């Protein structure tokens, strides 16, 4: 049985779902966006300053996950203090178009989403219903 061809992204055991969960993570999309727009490799501190609200621990974990998945390359220069730079791999660059499309969608539809949120919130607390 070929797991990839018979994968079901809705199944919790599907390897495709695991990959999708990692790519769809908010920090991952932001890191890939920064690296995609950068004309040269980016240092850790630059990434941290560019992505407001991300902790050092979360950025480190996100970069490790991206490197493990073959989406980011980490280059360490043997200088004192050590210099580490990150850039997208060719595989990582393939995410640029779909993630950019998602960002454009979010920008274009933000007013509609905000209006829906306000209408929902104006209705008051939602009654607890286990079937809903």
Walk me through this protein's architecture:
The mean pLDDT is 90. The protein has one domain: Orthogonal Bundle (Arc Repressor Mutant, subunit A). It is mainly alpha-helical. The chain is globular. It has 6 helices and 3 strands. The protein starts with 14 loop residues before the first helix and ends in a 10-residue tail after the last helix. The protein has a 3-stranded antiparallel sheet with strand order 1-3-2.
List the helices and strands and how they pair.
Layout: H1 15-23, H2 26-37, E1 42-43, H3 44-50, H4 56-68, E2 72-77, E3 83-88, H5 90-93, H6 96-122
Antiparallel strand pairs: 1-3, 2-3
Brief write-up:
It is built from six helices and three strands, in the order ααβααββαα.
From the structure above, extract its key features:
Arc Repressor Mutant, subunit A; mainly alpha; 132 residues; 55% helix; three-stranded antiparallel β-sheet; 6 helices; 3 strands; globular
User: Strand count, sense and closure of the main sheet?
Assistant: 3 strands, antiparallel
- Total beta strand runs: 3
- CA-atom Rg in angstroms: 19 Å
Give me the oligomer status: single chain
């Amino acid at each position: 049985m070929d797991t990839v061809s018979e994968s079901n992204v809705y199944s919790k055991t599907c390897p495709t779902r695991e990959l999708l969960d990692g790519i769809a993570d908010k920090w991952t999309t932001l890191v890939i966006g920064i690296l995609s727009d950068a004309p040269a490799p980016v240092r850790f501190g630059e990434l941290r300053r560019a992505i407001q609200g991300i902790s050092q621990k979360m950025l480190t974990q996100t970069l490790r996950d991206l490197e493990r998945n073959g989406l980011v390359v980490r280059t360490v220069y043997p200088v004192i203090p050590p210099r580490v730079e990150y850039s997208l791999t060719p595989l990582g660059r393939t995410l640029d178009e779909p993630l950019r499309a998602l960002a454009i969608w979010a920008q274009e539809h933000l007013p509609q989403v905000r209006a829906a949120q306000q209408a929902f919130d104006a209705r008051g607390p939602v009654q607890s219903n286990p079937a809903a």
